[in-house]
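Margin note from the TA: students keep mixing up input and output lines. Inputs are the sequences; the output is the structure of the whole complex. Example:
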Amino acid sequence: MSDTKWVYSFGDGSAEGSANMKNLLGGKGANLAEMCRLGLPVPPGLTITTEVCSAFYDNDRNYPDGLDSQLNDALEAISKAVGSDFGNPENPLLVSVRSGARASMPGMMDTVLNLGMNDETVTGLAKRAGDERFAWDSYRRFIQMYSDVVLGVSHDNFEEILDDYKMQQGHYVDTDLTAEDWQHIVTVYKQRVNEVYGDDFPQDVMEQLWGAVGAVFGSWRNARAETYRRLNNIPESWGTAVNVQAMVFGNLGPTSATGVAFTRNPSTGENALYGEFLVNAQGEDVVAGIRTPQNLTKIAREEALSDMPSMEEVMPEVFGQLVDVNLKLENHYRDMQDIEFTVQDGKLWMLQTRAGKRTTAAALKIAVDMVAEGLITKDEAVLRIDPMSLDQLLHPMLDPDAQFDIIATGLPASPGAASGAVVFSADEAEKAKADGRKVILVRMETSPEDIHGMHAAEGILTSRGGMTSHAAVVARGMGRPCVSGAGSVRIDYDKQDFQVAGVTVKAGETITLDGSTGRVMAGEVPTRQPELSGDFAKLIAWADEIRRMRVRTNAETPADAATAVKFGAEGIGLCRTEHMFFDANRIMAVREMILAENPDDRANPLERILPMQRDDFTELFTIMSGMPVTIRLLDPPLHEFLPQHEEDVLQVAEAIGMTQDKLKRRIRELEEVNPMLGHRGCRMGLTYPEIYEMQARAIFEAAINVAKTTGSTVVPEVMIPLVADHSELKELADRIEKIAQDVMQEKSAELDYLIGTMIELPRAALRAGDIAKTAKFFSFGTNDLTQTTFGISRDDAASFMEPYLSRGLFEYDPFVSLDQDGVGELVQLAAERGRSARKDLKLGICGEHGGDPASIAFCEKTGLDYVSCSPYRVPIARLAAAQSYLKIRK
Ligand code: ADP
Ligand code: MG
Ligand code: MG
């Protein structure tokens, strides 16, 4: 153990570490070492490795053997390089102590500057710098920072003392204070430390150093850091490194400064130096907001209409060096850098570099520009964009310049912004839409009966329900902005208004929702439409050249299908026909069909529904112009279509000529204890064969019609839901094939079609070999497959999913990201068994997981042919599919 290297030195154009040692040296330390190797001006320093942090915790908070002497040696090297000595009263070395984990991590200890100052070294520093004021100012800064960070004596103590003193002396700003003033402040600061901390401020510089090092390691386990790690899946075992670095001073007068810079604009991506600096200041001043920082470039200053000169203007020479260094760093790292620097007496010093955080728009522009500049390849550009971050660009957004009043906040259930007049029922929403009016549907909660209204509305606001409530799930699927669970909104359906925070909003009044943030605003707030253009379109086109898997969409309405095609969908992977049944114009016929007690009574309403379904499919096939379309036959339990409220029962009874009593009895007959596992899917198809036959006929007739009128080949894929056994599929497939024959004969036309099934029950996955004898394709219905594999009802999971996640029982919600170990094993097994029974079996996925990047990578690994997701996820899936291909197959 004792010959383990715990400390790595850097400085003077060389370093023991390098950029690829982030795990051992942390991000900051590894990049400081790399900058030294590049020959950039970096104050010399040392990095104590992350392994020391781990050893420290493994060993009851004791340091490993050998650290002490290695630290002393490295400190000696720094002293030599700088030409001063740690603790030497004549010529003192001062250092900063900086934490640095692998990934930058808020919650870690703040940096301590000017360490090494005490009652003696302060005079040495004053003499060396020829500046008493600077020395005492540095000392008081050090006492303040060290006490706050290491001794637990909070900043307020010192601010209070300073404010009182300034008031007493009639000083307004810190720059009014003289050397004597600061010297006096130091005395009072030290007294306060003694009172609060219970001991003197440490004068021994080694004690100061070990104190700061211990504070960094201690902060690895503080509450803020632990929370951050948990939320970001950073293992505790990683540990943090500590950097000790010779100080350079930005506070030595008008030729000194400190600043931060981005090599490109982090909000637009524009290839122009961007950043701020402060003359005569130390690091923390830039962020502390005590003084307003100045722009780096003249152009930026002019754009900001600032009368404070830019760095380019006041220090043209150093500015030139900074520009060169930036260029060098960008070319070396081949990515936009976020850097920190200090200028001491006209000399530039680099203190940090890392890949800069950026907006999605900037990330796209930078990636595309860097390919054009020859800095990175297209593959690299594609890998650089986080697919989920594209979501920001795929929905209408509030105009960033808009002013607005927030009247309520709820959960950000479905992203995007929308405005419209308030309506309180789905029917009104639909009526308004037909009249060309834009509305926001406001409900306490929504149910399947509201789907047509949700579709007609621009956005949905509910006062109850969480992120997985009906409103939230359906809205996300449709790409409608939704704010759910806005508890302060009090809806009164009778009065047709809602009250919130003392305001009453009546039906017809306009409100705006921002489903990305959960805000509800009064009036109409201007929004911006999303589009797939420019850099976004270019990068996605590169992704398309790379990926193997196809990307389809889950869509049933013409509008959704058209949106998906606009976003690049290559077919429909799931068309849920039940959504077509809820349409206000046909729900009565659907109800009559369901309520019929025998096939004869069912015949008439089915005949009325047939042409409507045929029109639906005709429209879909036309929009999809020859691309594959998978249509799932009716899936949900029938009673979902029946009236639930007394007044609806009355209305339905009248409309279909049935007594209310009989209707109620029939509704009760259809009710089930556990409808999810009840009389639904193919079970219903088998007991009411007329329904599936009608649907099959509508599909085939539409396909032949569209082929005739548009000339494009339509190959519909008919999908039978909830199959558990081959026999179920076989009987239904036979019936559907018979219908296909009939239709072809009637129309004297040929038609290609496929019959296949959803794999959404564990038994179906296990028996996939059998099922593939009949099925020409499988679509993994991973929503239901997750429900049935876990035995967890998705609609009831809300009450325990959150505690499961926060306590770490589940690493993630398996309804959001596929459980690759369990559900995934079933998928893999079904894919294998299915393919060995039928070599050209088409495989796809159509659950919510089809739009989740981690699940998409799993699909690539499993060799599926396509993923299918909601229209607004299509670009995300295209990018994620390309990234998976690059990571898994290249
Ligand atoms: P953070 O991780 O919060 O950015 P840093 O360790 O980078 O903390 O320190 C913050 C600032 O302190 C730096 O940007 C720099 O301005 C200043 N600083 C750190 N070390 C030194 C040093 N050796 N000399 C001068 N300034 C320093
Ligand atoms: Mg920093
Ligand atoms: Mg299902």
